[in-house]
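Input.
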Amino acid sequence: MGSVSEWLDDMASKYGFGSKTEQASGAAYETPGGHVAGGRAEVGPLHAEASGEVLHGHGKGVKSTLGYGNAKIGVKGGEDGYAGAEAGAGLVKIEVDATEALDLDDNLVVEGDVSAMNASAGVALTDDGLSAGAQANYLEGSITLGTTGTGDADEETRVGLSAGGGAAGRVHWGDRDGDGNAEYGIGVDVGPISADIKTEDPLRTYINTATGVTGQAVTNLIDGNMTHDAVKKGEEFLNDASGAADDLLTSASNWWNDDD
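Output.
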């Protein structure tokens, strides 16, 4: 299966939409650690997007933004393939990548965020997944823990809480570490609870979750990606079954013809 970007590029080429885009970005005042009144805009044949913030600062593993907003609509191919319509705004947002901030192992995912007075709505299809929903929160925060770049069985779990209203859902299939193994998963925001789970090996994750320590002790003895191996075995079984069915039909046809 090709990526969403490839599919959108094919559609653009087929219907003559082209792919040329115009971009602009800048800030009223910039420093090595951030900027004041910054913004970015991009317009293409079938899409438009814009974002901006009053204040933005960044340091080692920490980003903070005050007074921000963004909007995106349309269909776009290229490296950042996109189809949908989204808009959001908020008063303040702080994001922390503890792996970078604390010089932890690069294969660890330890991230957190908190934001206040924010709202968002939209639906989007990208190379990373599908999302849809609408929310408005006074305060929200989340933490993400997991691994990345360790092989073909990386996992991430995100949990969060919020005070506000709305609901959203997500289906994930992106490849965060670029190792060719997509991280499949789902995410939901319902009431005060927000949660996402992603895994490169859904079968292994399911067994570990459903059976606890016992199942994990067994899966730890199995090398490789269990999901990929199971799919491969399934394809081999179907091919063998199809071949056997063809042989049986051929034999039956030959017997019938010989009997005549």
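The mean pLDDT is 87.
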